[in-house]
Amino acid sequence: MSGLARASSQGSLDRPDDEVVPYSDDETDDELQSEDDLDRKAGWSVRANDREYCKRPEFQKKVFLCIKKSKYSGNGIKTYKYNFFTFLPLNLYEQFKRAANLYFLCLLILQIIPQISTLPWYTTLVPLVLVLGITAIKDLVDDLIALVTVFSRSKARHRMDKEINNRKCDVLLNGRFVETRWLNLQVGDVVRIKKNDFIPADILLLSSSNPNSLCYVETAELDGETNLKFKMGQKVTDERLQEEDQLARFNGLIMCEEPNNRLDKFVGTMIWDAQSYSLDLDNMLLRGCKIRNTDFCHGLVIFAGNDTKIMRNGGKTRFKRTLIDKLMNYMVYTIFALLVLLCAGLAIGHTYWYESVGSKAWYLYDGLNYSSSYRGFLSFWGYIIILNTMVPISLYVSVEVIRLGQSKFINWDLQMYYSEKDTPAKARTTTLNEQLGQIQYIFSDKTGTLTQNIMAFKKCSISGRTYGESTSADGVVLDRGKPVDFSWNKYADNKFQFEDHYLISCIRSKKDPQILEFFKLLSLCHTVMVENKEGELVYQAASPDEGALVTAARNFGFVLLARTQDEISILENEREESYKVLATLDFNSDRKRMSTILRFPDGRIRLYCKGADTIFANDTLRTLCLCYKDISEEDFAVWEQKHQVASCAVVNREEAQDVVYEEIEQNLLLIGATAIEDKLQDGVPETIAKLAKADIKIWVLTGDKKDDMKIHYGEDVNVQLRNRQTQRRSDPQGRNCKLKDPFFPQPGKNALIITGGWLNEILYEKKKKRRRLRLKKLRRRPNTPSPPDNSSSQPVDEWEKEKRQEDFVDMACECSAVICCRVTPKQKANVVSLVKKYKKAVTLSIGDGANDVNMIKTFVLLINGSSSLGSAADIGVGISGQEGMQAVMSSDYAFAQFCYLQRLLLVHGRWSYIRMCKFLRYFFYKNFAFTLVHFWFSFFNGFSSQTAYEDWFITLYNVCYSSLPVLLVGLLDQDVNDKLSLRFPKLYLPGQQGALFNYRNFFISLFHGIFTSLMIFFIPYGAFLQTMGQDGEAPSDYQSFAVVAASSLIITVNLQISLNTSYWTFVNCFAVLGSIALYFGIMFDIHSAGIHVIFPNTFTFTGAASNALRQPYLWLTIILTVGVCLLPVICIQFLYQTIWPSVGDKVQRNRKKYELEDDEEERKKKKPAFQRGSRSRRSAYAFSHSRGYGDLIASGRSIRQRPRARPELRESIREIPQAENI
Are 467 and 502 in contact (CB under 8 A)? Predict the structure, then answer.
């Protein structure tokens, strides 16, 4: 028996060791607060049964000027945003905060001014009202009909708030319980909650109907988890606060942290009868939870209403924005700048024209004696109105509609539906879909994300011998073993599998006391709760690891039977024993271990401890070392006093407890080690390999063999970075130039493995918490840094610290694999932030547990008037696994298996990016082509701000005539189907490079629009010169010209989107032809005599359409204009696809061949319709009962019939060009 080696805490301050469990501080020097700040955090105090206590002057806060009110909130809540009276003004205020809407409102005001109005007011009002109306309806539906996010109940917010505030509960008033509404509860009230009731506030559990004041709660409304959690009252309150009169006399004082949003933490102290008692989250019942399996419980209201944790989590969220969003905004600003320049140029032109021509032409005299300069000024505003359609009013609404549709396609994708848990994929945001097609870095958690997080006890090492291989009862190793028969143990779990019969024989023979002590430790050192359901023991563990270990001990004959606050009962050697729990030393991310101090039946005091280790790491098993030590009564008495003081500390309780824990966890004797298996999820290696081919870097695992890689550990990395720092200090130009030499001679053949301790060391965040707190307490500051010393590893200023961080990111990016192990949640978020900061890369974080929330979610929390910004990846993905739903609830996208990530990115992400880019390019093009016709017309009308089209055509162009085809392209278009997208990951590269939408594409759309507008104007203009119709009438009037130009434009832009469409369906055909037909139908109606009679001043183009379009000459003009506009586009597309084909073009060219090959493989894999002994199971997924069009949309297959494969071609079909060779 050897002592368990343990690194001293002092040594770890200077030189972390990757082989020893490192410390991983959650805080850095920059985030430390003074003791005064921490004291203020502990300023929340509550006196039981004393409402007046909260109204004291010291608890008042200033609201406005000299008006004060209590800082303690009432229990009433309001989650709705609008009511009947405030909806219209508040919604309009929100919408006009958008620059585009405000811009068009200003235009509408300009159009009311007669001197500068060049278009009727309705040309701007109709599109603006449509845009505002659609957005307002969406907001109204969200506020009045949608689910209440905080409580996830299917009722309107107004009704929900009213119902919640009027719920009833029992409150102790004047010595007896009376029924009252939630709205009337106050901090300090003692309440009684019954079975299946919701908890009305954040309440300290005092007692319950269950033994030891155990209370079961359902937290589904709080964190989405459906399994029951247990809470437990203090032993003293359980014993003394059961009856009504006892509760009425209770006058305890609760000192705790101020209200905050942390659902996983509560620190407080109860002072009662001159005794202090430590309080933590296990003693709290949080609002939003429901009481289960408990007849009733009593509690004390600590936080009420908006101070509760669930309401604090309803703070402001910082919405993530995509790269395309940012680029689109810059392009709108560019368009506005171009608009101002064009209008200024035309205004100057009008000034000179009027000076030289207009003022001298008597027939142009308008009776206004304005100067030419003033007329030019009025002309500028007139052209601002005419050319306003360059800034697209419907752009943002159209983008939101497309994103909503793309999100629905993700939700409806049956290939991302996990039938075992009835879990579909869920797009929890509608603003990031196209960003999924641009991911460059993925940061992944391991346990539960890449692995199943279903733990199985596989091996153990006891007294130097390893157990777990297939052996006989005599210890002979077998080539093929069989599972152990546990029928001798009536409490055995039938799912438990083990093949080492020798270990079982040792346990049953009781010949090795160390083996018995080993499994006794497993059955006693844990926080598992046990419940007896109909004679069957059900364990509830805080983690799958603990559950697996206690289950293993149960099968080996050491059965956890019952547990109370201060006692554990187990069955050992077929004899029931009870052990008194003196203290539980909880696990945390710094200590990486937990301990339990027990009093044995014979009076001995023993400490059992289990902590993380790497003994079975080569077998990819999760390992814990088990050890113990006996403690004398005297030593325990001294230590217990220190533990009591640390446990009751309100400020820095965790740090104080760590010091006390470290003191007792010394000189332990090692018994052995456990090894637990956590298998990879299905499809993880294939997914990682496919994403790697798409040039997406994953920072967790590598697909390369270890022998082919040179692995660099924390110490190597630190040396490399220190050398780079020294080199920079030695270079006189070090601060002015970036060192570009690679860190490794062979980039791509390296792997980096770094622990949390080394990460802090490398990034200069290595001081231990207690050392920093001691410095703060003594008010000591570090000495002023001396002049730079090239041999010193410490930074001399902030610039050098940032350069060190940048060097680390550069080094990591040279590696094929980066693994950061044993890091805290905050360190995960910091690594993501560093890559975002220094690589300007699009990042995605994926995880399954609460410890992954920091790197998944970006949020702004408002606490006491101050805000704090959380750091996260551009996109967060949550896995709905075994560790609850907190990651899912904080994510942008959620699904059940890691392997679905490849489909999310390579299919939906790529499609969304391509669709959005096509939509934006075409949207800008069609608006330029439409608007710039006015510009060319200005050169022939004296720059007089006359329009080239009829007013109603201008009003309806973006709303009716050209919106639907491009909207459908943005929703449905696919270059290749989903199978080819997965088969050729290189198709993903254009999105990472931003190749399909950038300023180059924007200016191409601009010049394309300029060319189209030139043709739309000058071809009809030339055709109308000296023209005579068949009936002898000249059709070369202004109105006929406007009709021909408008008709040419509508046909051109609708056929142009047809050329850009890769995936044709009936809906696309209908949209293109329907838009053209709708244009002609509306045009003939508004040009009719009947509507002119009713509205003579509004519809002035009477008979223009019928008169113009009955001339074959003008139809030929329209056909010529459309042909000249489209022919160059067709030629350019042909040349590009023939001479400079992209990867997508090559795949499209061979698309039918690949599809035939995929069909052939599917036929080979297809199982017979009926198999003997097979079971059929109907899915519970709503969209899986009948077959609809979801597969067609997701697959990308055309509605056209596919030609059958000829037999002689099958051999050549098998030659499959891989993506990297295309």
Answer: yes
Q: Is 458 helix (H, G, I), strand (E, B) or coil?
A: strand
Largest distance between two CA atoms of the chain? 124
Report CA-CA distances (Å) from 527 to 457, 546, 584, 593, 661: 18, 8, 8, 13, 17
Using CA atoms, how far apart are residues 552 and 550, in angstroms rounded to an integer?
5
Which residue positions form the known binding site for ATP? 445-447, 546, 587, 610, 622, 702-704, 822, 828, 851-852
CA 692 to CA 156: how far, in whole Å?
Answer: 46
Sign of CA dihedral 971, 976, 980, 985: negative
Q: End-to-end distance of the chain based on CA atoms, in angstroms? A: 63
Domain hosting residue 1117, numbered range: 903-1140
- Residue 1, classified by CB atoms within 10 Å of its CB into exposed (0-12), middle (13-18) or buried (19+), is exposed
* pLDDT tens, residue by residue, 1053-1086: 999 999 999 999 999 999 999 999 999 999 999 9
Per-residue pLDDT reduced to its tens digit, 370-382: 888 998 998 998 8
Question: What's the total number of domains in the chain?
Answer: 3
The Cα–Cα gap between 719 and 804 comes to 12
Q: Is residue 11 part of a domain?
A: no
Give tens-digit pLDDT for 627-670.
Answer: 999 999 999 999 999 998 888 887 788 888 889 999 999 999 99
176 phi and psi angles, rounded to 5 deg: -145, 155
Which CATH number is 1039's domain given? Answer: 1.20.1110.10
Q: Distance between CA 236 and CA 566 in Å, rounded?
A: 12
Find tokens 């014979």 and name the residue.
602
Q: Is 445 part of the annotated catalytic residue set?
A: yes
- Beta-strand pair 893-895/875-879: parallel
Query: Is 981 inside any structural domain?
Result: yes
Q: What pTM does this model have?
A: 0.78
Q: Is 1031 exposed, middle or buried (0-12, 13-18, 19+ CB in 10 A)?
A: exposed
Total residue count of the chain as it appears in this document:
1222
Which of 98-107, 243-252, 313-322 is predicted most confidently? Answer: 243-252
Question: Of 197, 223, 445, 590, which one is the catalytic site residue?
Answer: 445
Question: For position 637, which CATH number holds?
Answer: 3.40.1110
- One-letter amino acid of 349: G
Cα(442)–Cα(699) distance, integer angstroms? 6
User: How far from 802 is each of 795, 806, 809, CA to CA, in Å?
Assistant: 9, 6, 11
Last residue of a domain, one of 1091, 1116, 1140: 1140
d(CA 383, CA 117): 9
DSSP state, 787?
S
In b/e form, how buried is each residue of 829-864, taking b as 16+ CB within 10 angstroms?
A: bbbbbbbbebbebbbbbbbbbbbbbbbbbbbebeee
Spatial contact of 944 and 379, defined as CB atoms under 8 Å apart? yes
What are the phi and psi torsion angles at 143 (to 5°)? -85, -30
Where a domain ends, among 1140, 1174, 1199? 1140
The Cα–Cα gap between 734 and 729 comes to: 6
Token pair listed for 735: 């601060």
Query: How many other C-beta atoms lie within 10 A of the C-beta of residue 156?
Result: 18
pLDDT band, very low/low/confident/very high, at 1209 (cuts 50, 70, 90): very low
Q: Can you read off the two tokens belonging to residue 516? A: 């018995």
Q: Is residue 171 part of a domain?
A: yes
Residues that constitute the known binding site: 445-447, 546, 587, 610, 622, 702-704, 822, 828, 848, 851-852
- Beta pairing class for 567-572 and 575-585: antiparallel
CB 900 within 8 A of CB 432: no
Any bridge partners for residue 459, and if so which? Answer: 675
Q: For residue 641, tell me if it sits in a domain.
A: yes
DSSP code of residue 1168: P
Task: Give the residue among 911, 1039, 1031 at the shortest CA–CA distance from 981.
Answer: 911
Query: Two tokens at 493?
Result: 């779990």
Instruction: Please state, as a whole number, how many other Cβ atoms lie within 10 Å of the Cβ of residue 19.
Output: 11
